[in-house]
Automatic annotation (TrEMBL):
Top-level taxon in the UniProt lineage: Archaea
Source species of the chain: Natrialba hulunbeirensis JCM 10989
Gene3D superfamilies reported for this sequence: RelE-like
Protein name: Cytotoxic translational repressor of toxin-antitoxin stability system
Pfam family, one: ParE_toxin
Keywords, alphabetical: Toxin-antitoxin system
């Protein structure tokens, strides 16, 4: 996953905070990764990856 590797180098610029959730999103074309970012240890945890049309519905709580 090339975009995830890029995100570790430019985390502040690549990740967008999801409003109302403790997650971030990483865009790669029509796909999105839902990510938890441990800022203290600078670790990215990929929670889910999917098409932008339904990744949020499937993997985020209501």
């Amino acid at each position: 996953m090339n975009k995830a590797d890029e995100a570790t180098d430019w985390t502040e610029h690549r990740l967008e905070r999801l409003s109302g959730y403790p997650y971030y999103k990483l865009r790669a074309g029509d796909y999105r990764a839902i990510i938890t970012w441990d800022r203290d240890d600078d670790i990215l945890i990929v929670e889910a990856v999917g098409h932008r049309r339904n990744v949020y519905d499937r993997h985020l709580p209501p």
